[in-house]
Protein backbone atom coordinates (compact mmCIF):
# COMPACT_ATOMS: atom_id res chain seq x y z
CA UNK A 1 0.00 0.00 0.00
CA UNK A 2 1.23 3.45 -0.89
CA UNK A 3 0.68 6.06 1.80
CA UNK A 4 -0.75 9.03 -0.05
CA UNK A 5 -1.98 11.01 2.92
CA UNK A 6 -1.96 10.85 6.68
CA UNK A 7 -3.49 13.35 9.02
CA UNK A 8 -4.23 13.73 12.70
CA UNK A 9 -7.98 13.60 13.40
CA UNK A 10 -8.72 13.70 17.12
CA UNK A 11 -7.46 12.77 20.58
CA UNK A 12 -9.84 11.83 23.33
CA UNK A 13 -10.45 9.66 26.32
CA UNK A 14 -13.98 8.59 25.55
CA UNK A 15 -14.82 5.90 23.08
CA UNK A 16 -18.10 7.64 22.33
CA UNK A 17 -16.14 10.62 21.03
CA UNK A 18 -13.96 8.60 18.67
CA UNK A 19 -14.66 9.47 15.03
CA UNK A 20 -18.20 8.66 14.01
CA UNK A 21 -17.07 6.64 11.04
CA UNK A 22 -17.30 3.13 9.73
CA UNK A 23 -13.80 3.15 8.24
CA UNK A 24 -11.69 0.17 9.22
CA UNK A 25 -9.20 0.93 11.95
CA UNK A 26 -6.04 -0.54 13.43
CA UNK A 27 -4.83 0.03 16.97
CA UNK A 28 -1.17 0.26 17.94
CA UNK A 29 -0.37 -0.46 21.53
CA UNK A 30 2.53 -1.51 23.73
CA UNK A 31 4.68 -0.69 26.73
CA UNK A 32 5.89 2.88 26.82
CA UNK A 33 9.21 3.27 25.01
CA UNK A 34 8.61 0.19 22.88
CA UNK A 35 9.01 2.33 19.77
CA UNK A 36 5.36 2.99 18.97
CA UNK A 37 5.69 6.60 17.85
CA UNK A 38 8.74 5.74 15.75
CA UNK A 39 6.91 2.83 14.13
CA UNK A 40 3.85 4.95 13.32
CA UNK A 41 6.07 7.60 11.77
CA UNK A 42 7.95 4.93 9.81
CA UNK A 43 4.74 3.33 8.50
CA UNK A 44 3.25 6.66 7.46
CA UNK A 45 6.61 8.00 6.22
CA UNK A 46 6.12 11.10 8.34
CA UNK A 47 8.79 12.46 10.61
CA UNK A 48 6.53 13.29 13.50
CA UNK A 49 2.96 12.29 12.84
CA UNK A 50 2.66 10.40 16.11
CA UNK A 51 4.31 13.22 17.98
CA UNK A 52 1.70 15.73 16.81
CA UNK A 53 -0.54 14.29 19.47
CA UNK A 54 2.33 13.37 21.76
CA UNK A 55 2.67 16.57 23.73
CA UNK A 56 2.50 16.14 27.50
CA UNK A 57 -0.96 15.28 28.70
CA UNK A 58 -1.93 13.88 25.35
CA UNK A 59 -0.13 10.62 25.75
CA UNK A 60 -2.89 8.98 27.76
CA UNK A 61 -5.44 9.47 25.04
CA UNK A 62 -6.83 7.56 22.09
CA UNK A 63 -5.35 9.26 19.03
CA UNK A 64 -6.95 8.79 15.63
CA UNK A 65 -5.11 9.39 12.36
CA UNK A 66 -6.75 9.15 8.95
CA UNK A 67 -4.65 7.38 6.32
CA UNK A 68 -5.34 7.68 2.58
CA UNK A 69 -8.87 8.86 3.51
CA UNK A 70 -9.49 5.13 3.79
CA UNK A 71 -8.63 3.83 7.23
CA UNK A 72 -7.81 4.96 10.74
CA UNK A 73 -4.56 4.32 12.49
CA UNK A 74 -5.16 4.50 16.24
CA UNK A 75 -2.34 5.32 18.61
CA UNK A 76 -3.29 4.05 22.05
CA UNK A 77 -1.55 4.99 25.31
CA UNK A 78 1.57 3.09 26.23
CA UNK A 79 1.16 0.78 29.19
CA UNK A 80 3.59 -0.43 31.75
CA UNK A 81 5.55 2.65 32.73
CA UNK A 82 7.60 2.25 35.86
CA UNK A 83 4.90 0.62 37.91
CA UNK A 84 4.52 -3.08 37.49
CA UNK A 85 0.99 -4.21 38.03
CA UNK A 86 -0.27 -7.64 38.83
CA UNK A 87 -3.18 -7.47 36.51
CA UNK A 88 -3.93 -5.83 33.23
CA UNK A 89 -7.12 -4.47 34.78
CA UNK A 90 -5.13 -2.38 37.21
CA UNK A 91 -2.87 -0.89 34.61
CA UNK A 92 -5.33 -0.16 31.87
CA UNK A 93 -7.60 2.76 32.06
CA UNK A 94 -11.16 1.75 31.60
CA UNK A 95 -11.40 3.60 28.34
CA UNK A 96 -8.84 1.35 26.74
CA UNK A 97 -10.81 -1.77 27.50
CA UNK A 98 -13.95 0.13 26.46
CA UNK A 99 -12.24 1.05 23.21
CA UNK A 100 -11.54 -2.58 22.34
CA UNK A 101 -14.94 -3.76 23.46
CA UNK A 102 -16.89 -1.10 21.59
CA UNK A 103 -15.04 -0.22 18.38
CA UNK A 104 -16.38 -2.85 16.05
CA UNK A 105 -14.49 -1.43 13.07
CA UNK A 106 -11.19 -2.16 14.84
CA UNK A 107 -9.95 -4.95 12.57
CA UNK A 108 -6.61 -5.70 14.18
CA UNK A 109 -4.66 -4.58 17.23
CA UNK A 110 -0.93 -4.46 16.69
CA UNK A 111 0.75 -5.32 19.97
CA UNK A 112 4.28 -3.94 19.95
CA UNK A 113 7.06 -5.92 21.59
CA UNK A 114 10.69 -4.79 21.85
CA UNK A 115 12.59 -7.54 20.04
CA UNK A 116 15.50 -7.23 22.49
CA UNK A 117 13.57 -8.13 25.62
CA UNK A 118 12.35 -11.35 27.19
CA UNK A 119 8.62 -11.90 27.27
CA UNK A 120 7.10 -9.59 29.89
CA UNK A 121 4.08 -10.55 31.98
CA UNK A 122 2.22 -7.35 31.17
CA UNK A 123 2.35 -8.00 27.42
CA UNK A 124 1.42 -11.66 27.83
CA UNK A 125 -1.50 -10.73 30.08
CA UNK A 126 -2.67 -8.11 27.64
CA UNK A 127 -2.64 -10.55 24.72
CA UNK A 128 -4.45 -13.06 26.93
CA UNK A 129 -7.10 -10.44 27.57
CA UNK A 130 -7.44 -9.74 23.84
CA UNK A 131 -7.80 -13.47 23.20
CA UNK A 132 -10.43 -13.86 25.91
CA UNK A 133 -12.41 -11.02 24.33
CA UNK A 134 -11.99 -12.43 20.80
CA UNK A 135 -10.20 -9.28 19.68
CA UNK A 136 -7.97 -9.97 16.68
CA UNK A 137 -4.35 -8.99 17.12
CA UNK A 138 -0.87 -9.38 15.65
CA UNK A 139 2.50 -8.92 17.27
CA UNK A 140 4.95 -6.36 15.92
CA UNK A 141 8.50 -6.86 17.12
CA UNK A 142 10.24 -3.47 17.13
CA UNK A 143 13.84 -2.21 17.01
CA UNK A 144 15.10 -5.21 15.02
CA UNK A 145 18.16 -3.20 13.94
CA UNK A 146 19.39 -3.18 17.52
CA UNK A 147 20.20 -6.88 17.39
CA UNK A 148 22.55 -8.92 15.28
CA UNK A 149 20.62 -11.23 12.90
CA UNK A 150 21.31 -14.39 14.89
CA UNK A 151 20.35 -12.82 18.19
CA UNK A 152 17.16 -11.52 16.60
CA UNK A 153 16.18 -14.97 15.34
CA UNK A 154 16.98 -16.44 18.78
CA UNK A 155 14.86 -13.86 20.58
CA UNK A 156 11.87 -14.25 18.28
CA UNK A 157 12.11 -18.03 18.66
CA UNK A 158 12.23 -17.69 22.46
CA UNK A 159 9.20 -15.41 22.36
CA UNK A 160 7.35 -17.87 20.19
CA UNK A 161 8.10 -20.69 22.63
CA UNK A 162 6.80 -18.58 25.50
CA UNK A 163 3.61 -17.81 23.57
CA UNK A 164 3.09 -21.49 22.84
CA UNK A 165 2.79 -22.09 26.58
CA UNK A 166 -0.54 -20.25 26.36
CA UNK A 167 -1.55 -20.32 22.72
CA UNK A 168 -2.12 -23.13 20.27
CA UNK A 169 -0.14 -21.28 17.67
CA UNK A 170 2.04 -18.23 17.46
CA UNK A 171 -0.09 -15.25 16.44
CA UNK A 172 0.74 -13.53 13.16
CA UNK A 173 3.82 -11.43 13.76
CA UNK A 174 6.03 -8.90 12.02
CA UNK A 175 9.65 -7.96 12.59
CA UNK A 176 10.23 -4.24 12.16
CA UNK A 177 12.75 -1.47 12.52
CA UNK A 178 11.80 2.19 12.45
CA UNK A 179 15.47 2.85 11.79
CA UNK A 180 15.86 0.73 8.63
CA UNK A 181 12.24 0.44 7.51
CA UNK A 182 12.30 -3.35 7.74
CA UNK A 183 8.79 -4.76 7.97
CA UNK A 184 7.06 -1.65 6.63
CA UNK A 185 5.82 -3.25 3.40
CA UNK A 186 4.61 -6.36 5.23
CA UNK A 187 2.58 -4.47 7.82
CA UNK A 188 1.05 -2.14 5.22
CA UNK A 189 0.22 -5.05 2.94
CA UNK A 190 -1.46 -6.87 5.81
CA UNK A 191 -3.59 -3.79 6.53
CA UNK A 192 -4.41 -3.38 2.84
CA UNK A 193 -5.63 -6.97 2.60
CA UNK A 194 -7.84 -6.58 5.66
CA UNK A 195 -9.20 -3.30 4.29
CA UNK A 196 -10.11 -5.03 1.03
CA UNK A 197 -11.91 -7.82 2.87
CA UNK A 198 -13.75 -5.27 5.01
CA UNK A 199 -15.00 -3.30 2.01
CA UNK A 200 -16.31 -6.37 0.15
P1 LIG B 1 7.13 5.04 22.31
O1 LIG B 1 7.25 5.57 23.70
O2 LIG B 1 6.67 3.63 22.30
O3 LIG B 1 6.35 5.92 21.38
O4 LIG B 1 8.64 4.94 21.74
P2 LIG B 1 9.46 5.91 20.78
O5 LIG B 1 9.05 5.75 19.37
O6 LIG B 1 9.43 7.30 21.34
O7 LIG B 1 10.91 5.24 20.90
C1 LIG B 1 11.57 5.08 22.15
C2 LIG B 1 13.09 5.14 21.89
O8 LIG B 1 13.48 4.03 21.07
C3 LIG B 1 13.51 6.39 21.12
O9 LIG B 1 14.77 6.77 21.62
C4 LIG B 1 13.63 5.91 19.69
O10 LIG B 1 14.56 6.65 18.93
C5 LIG B 1 14.09 4.48 19.88
N1 LIG B 1 13.62 3.62 18.77
C6 LIG B 1 12.34 3.41 18.42
N2 LIG B 1 12.26 2.56 17.38
C7 LIG B 1 13.53 2.21 17.06
C8 LIG B 1 14.12 1.36 16.06
O11 LIG B 1 13.44 0.70 15.25
N3 LIG B 1 15.47 1.26 16.05
C9 LIG B 1 16.26 1.94 16.93
N4 LIG B 1 17.58 1.77 16.85
N5 LIG B 1 15.76 2.74 17.88
C10 LIG B 1 14.41 2.90 17.94
Write a structural description:
The chain is an alpha/beta fold and 200 residues long. The chain is 32% helix and 21% strand. It has a single domain (6-149, 164-199), classed as Rossmann fold (3-Layer(aba) Sandwich), CATH 3.40.50. The protein has six helices and seven strands, in the order ββαββααβαβαβα. A seven-stranded mixed β-sheet has the order 1-3-4-2-5-6-7, sandwiched between helices. Helix 5 (149-163) links the parallel strand 6 and strand 7. Residues 32-38, 78, 142-143, 145-146, 177-179 line the site of guanosine-5'-diphosphate. Keywords: Cell cycle, Cell division, GTP-binding, Magnesium, Metal-binding, Nucleotide-binding, Septation. Its cofactor is Mg(2+). It holds the Pfam family MMR_HSR1. It comes from Gillisia limnaea (strain DSM 15749 / LMG 21470 / R-8282).
Task: Briefly summarize what is shown.
The protein has helices at 36-44, 88-91, 94-102, 121-132, 149-163, 184-199; strands spanning 6-12, 25-30, 62-67, 71-75, 106-114, 137-142, 173-175. It is an alpha/beta fold.
Features:
single chain; 200 residues; alpha/beta; Rossmann fold; 7-stranded mixed beta sheet; 21% strand; binds guanosine-5'-diphosphate; GTP binding; cell division; metal-binding; magnesium
